Amino acid sequence: VTGAKFKKNDFPPSGQVTYQLYFPPLSKTVKTIKFGVEKERSWYVHDIVIREDENALLLPKELRGNWLLIDGSNRWQYGFNSKYAIINSAIWNYTSIEAKGNKYTINLEKKGDAKTIYANRQKNGNIAFGEQQNELQTYSLEKTNNPNYILADDVPYKEDGLFQIGTTTYSGIIKGFSSRTEQKTGTISINNPFLAEKESHVIKIADDGSFSVNIPITHPQTAFVSLPNGRYSVLVSPGQETFHYANAKASLFMGDCAQVNSDLQAMEFIKYFNHKKIRKNLGITPPEAYKKVCFDVRDKELKALEDFKTKHFVCAK
To answer: Is the pTM here over 0.85, yes or no?
Structure first.
């Protein structure tokens, strides 16, 4: 703002701060604004909603959010926001929504395909969703911890058949992406065992933030993904699809590798190996001492995993 007086504010240790901005009244026709800083390293937050458009008003606010199955798997199967729905690893547009009391009929379309989702809002805020009116399952916006949950066909990776030359599909959508964002590409890097090095592939991002890329791969592995809103570790596997709702704070997954990715993300805190300290002492730490450090970290992480599993379900993979 020209002529405004500025005061320097340091961020607290939490890295979060709350503030308010005051500016002249906006026109009643303004629906979104852009907020940012213009300097050598400029940055912006695009499409801050001031007034929702008619399409956004189609979806009742009580239906909005990412809904997780309450059986203990926390499987993400329905995502509804003001612009689109995410179901079965695909992005759907709203055509109409009918409401009768606590019951809703949501009609969707995607490139000529049609889908209808039925919803029944419960008193506790949870919602039962389904594609058949008489086969609804209950979902919550919060995780449900059930260490006794049993996943069908829950088997670990086995050495036989683990290595196979094929392709994998990595697709998804970036939360809050704006068509005004300058960066319209990302990268996904995987390990190539034949070259003994990482191999990077370009991810092209559409104006709505969606993306899809097929890449060659030889075995299940963690891929390193760089997108405009952050960096991620995502497990991908030959012949399988991974759909990623890329949210810098808490990603969500659909597709073949959804459960293992969700579990890995929930256990990201189990990392006790101090790489910085180890690198600093390379050439100084005796081999036996280094071996002890590695084994101590292993034991500590395995114990943390077992402690986590007493309160949460973790798939065998």
So the answer is: no
